[in-house]
Amino acid sequence: MAFAIEEPLSAGDVDGCAQVARDSRLRVIGDESIRLIEQLTALPEPSRWIVNVRVSKTGGVLRAMEVVAEATKLGIDVIVGCQVGETSVLTRAALAVMASVQGAVIGAEGAFGTHLLSSDLTDRTIMWGHGGLLRGEDVPDRGGGLGLQLDPAAVLVPLEGT
Fold this sequence. Notes:
Helices cover 31% and strands 14% of the residues. The protein is an alpha/beta fold. The chain has a five-stranded parallel beta sheet. Helix 4 packs parallel to helix 5 (88-99). The longest helix is centred in the middle third of the chain and has 14 residues, at 61-74. The radius of gyration is 18 Å and the shape is elongated.
């Protein structure tokens, strides 16, 4: 049974989405309409919303953490999402955002790794396995760069004619 619908109207039409939520009795997952804290605080009827926070969409790990913290304060549930084709770098960043809050994250997208990419940019690929679960040993928990090392061969692309 459905409990929510993702951005059923044009981005920015929060009043219309709130009306859809009331009429359908579904919560609205704000995606393109919500990237900034100011957009969260302006939402009518916060309990009818879920915000889809994407690290790349919000401008980085710290800004994504700020949006998640504000959503939590306002009583808005959170999905930490990803863009199609994100590398393990952004998957690891999203995991850091999820770890920054307790209880507000009701869903997560991402960790597709080489299920969608022909190769990754890092020394290990963080992606879901059997049952849609991440294996703990695949997720680094310390070190600079969120514990990942870039694979120089994957990052350096030769220029034409060189």
